[in-house]
What we know:
Radius of gyration: 18 Å
Strand order of the largest sheet: 3-4-5-9-8-7-6
Number of domains: 1
Largest sheet: 7 strands, antiparallel
CATH topology: Protein Transport Mog1p, Chain A
Distance between the termini: 58 Å
Order of helices and strands: HEEEEEHEEEEHE
CATH superfamily: Mog1/PsbP, alpha/beta/alpha sandwich
Amino acid sequence: MPKNNIFSSIRSFFAGHPGKTCYVCFRDSLENFEISYPKGWKFDRDMAIVEGKYTITFQSPDRHSQFTVAVDAQLPWGFDFAKYAKQELESPSSGIYTDVKKGKFRGMDAYRREYTYRSGRDYFGGGIMFSNGDCVFSLSWSGPEARKKELQPVFEKIVESIKFKQPGFKVPKTKHVKKARRRRR
């Protein structure tokens, strides 16, 4: 298979409906991560940090789909990520029970989960949790089961867009091209 066909099939998998979804960049004010989310989705600009933990939730305009990034930036000495992930991901939350699968995310140990639940309608959801050594990042998403085929590629694109700080370094910034200012005469 020619090289272009491989890349085009990968791009089309993550693109969802080409041309229909535009993404904008969100930068965490604490510089722990940067992520792209669909234009038109909203998030709460007021962020509460409690004992080094905070959460940012991006919500679709219809308020039925969401993507959440939770950060735990205050890890204790001798932190055991496997124990932390098992406790956090397998504890029941809002009546949702899930099995956790260990895997890798960008070369780091990670834990993934998928689930469904009912809240007036059927929903699907998923998540991935990983640690860069300084912080634990928990990405989670959910949307109406009836729209899974449309939303799953959107969620995958958001996951793939995340940039997070490496231990001891600031998060990599997206390059922005500034327009040259015209001089007034």
